[in-house]
Design goal:
The chain has about 190 residues and is mainly β. It has a single domain, classed as Jelly Rolls, CATH 2.60.120. The protein is about 0% helix and about 60% strand. The protein has strands at about 1-5, 20-30, 30-35, 45-50, 50-60, 65-75, 85-90, 95-100, 105-115, 115-125, 135-140, 145-150, 150-160, 165-170, 175-185. The termini are close together.
């Protein structure tokens, strides 16, 4: 059963209702609902405009062991990074999976974060133009993980570092200014 959030019922200039923001590492992320006329489902998006090692925002009531997570994102700015990502099996700020696409590096990556340390599982080159809406989706079941960008699968991987149910959400890196819309997730 899929659930979706488009942030349109949230108050502009405020945090998204039902979401919890934080950072793995250090920094001061700023997650707010803002108006974006280019949004896939206008008028509102969730935007990260602060900075931090790995800023995240998770849907508090979510708990998924096997399923999918998907979001539309647009990398707006960033000198060090222009990343948009999704997280799943989020246990806490230091333990979760993340898949991300990066407009500066033009790649899609899969990581797990364990005890606050991000570990690379796989990088794949992919076209990720900035200031353009993209769809990032991850399907996960047991140890199987499949990462797709704009409908094309770029990564298929098996990994068992983070097991069991956890929250789902969105993620950025460093000074990435990124907008998110049409977040959805579901269980298998």
């Amino acid at each position: 059963m899929a659930q979706s959030v488009n942030f349109d019922s949230d108050k502009q200039g405020s945090p998204a209702a039902g979401w919890s923001a934080g950072v793995t590492g250090r920094g001061s992320p700023v997650w707010t609902v803002v108006q974006d006329p280019t949004a896939p489902s206008a008028p509102n998006v969730l935007k990260q405009s602060g900075s931090g090692t790995f800023p995240f925002c998770v849907l508090k009531q979510s708990s998924v062991a096997d399923g999918f997570v998907e979001v539309k994102f647009k990398a707006l700015a960033g000198r060090e990074d222009q990343a948009g990502g999704v997280i799943w099996r989020f246990k806490n700020a230091d333990n979760y999976y993340v898949a991300r696409a990066n407009a500066l590096e033009h790649n899609v990556s899969l990581y797990y974060t364990e005890n606050g340390s991000r570990k690379t599982l796989k990088y794949v080159d992919a076209p990720v133009p900035g200031n353009t809406w993209h769809t990032l989706r991850v399907d996960f079941e047991g140890q199987s993980i499949k990462v797709a960008l704009d409908g094309k699968t770029y990564i298929e991987f098996k990994d068992g570092h983070i097991a069991g149910a956890g929250a789902v959400g969105v993620w950025t890196k460093a000074d990435s200014v990124t907008a998110f819309d049409d977040f959805s997730y579901g269980r298998r």
